[in-house]
Known about the structure:
Blueprint: H1 3-8, E1 11-12, H2 21-24, E2 27-35, H3 39-47, E3 61-64, E4 74-78, E5 89-98, E6 102-110, H4 112-117, E7 118-129, E8 135-145, H5 156-167, H6 170-182, E9 190-191, E10 194-195, H7 201-208
Antiparallel strand pairs: 1-6, 2-8, 3-4, 4-5, 5-6, 6-7, 7-8, 9-10
Helix pairs in contact: 3-6
Amino acid sequence: MSITSFLQKQYPAVQPVDDSVFDTAALVFTVESVFDAPRWAVWTALDDDHAWRWLPIPRTGVRYDSPARGAGVIREMGSVFAPLRVLWVERERFWRYEPQRRITFGVVSATWLQYLLVRQYAENMTFDDVGADRTKVAWTVAVTPRLPLRFATWFPPLWRVAYRIAGLGPLFRRRVAEVVRTGRPPGEIATNGRTATEPTARRVEEGAK
């Protein structure tokens, strides 16, 4: 096995990967933020192929196994673009996908870096209107670090600050504003070349493979 193959190998996360993670994880916290943008724009910014590229980490973003969206679909998140795929790539499975309303997903496997540091990880996001063209995002994270990072669970406020700034902060707000400028109306949100509707059973099955 080459060093590249070794570094890109996926190691399974601790099971189960479902709602029970939010009850059993060593640390569970929620970050809320309000955006001066319609719900469809905030949703699109977090769901399209440019999601998470605003993070200040080179070659970071998401890649989907198929064009499908929906429960059962798996995507890659992390440094998914060459040449940095040898660093941090996690595979996330969605078990809840309600367009423009709610998504829930968790890590089912990951490359060496995350495997060494994290036992379990899951996220739940809800999107709510709070006025004309204003949207509130509530982002709940459940994480159980492995021993090298276990001490980090003692500082929930630091986790909240980090997620608020890096995840929903100025760089993400800039991305939302960019989506608004494209003028895509509700019901025509492009997600990986498809409209954001519930996938058929066949598409869900294909996306889960």
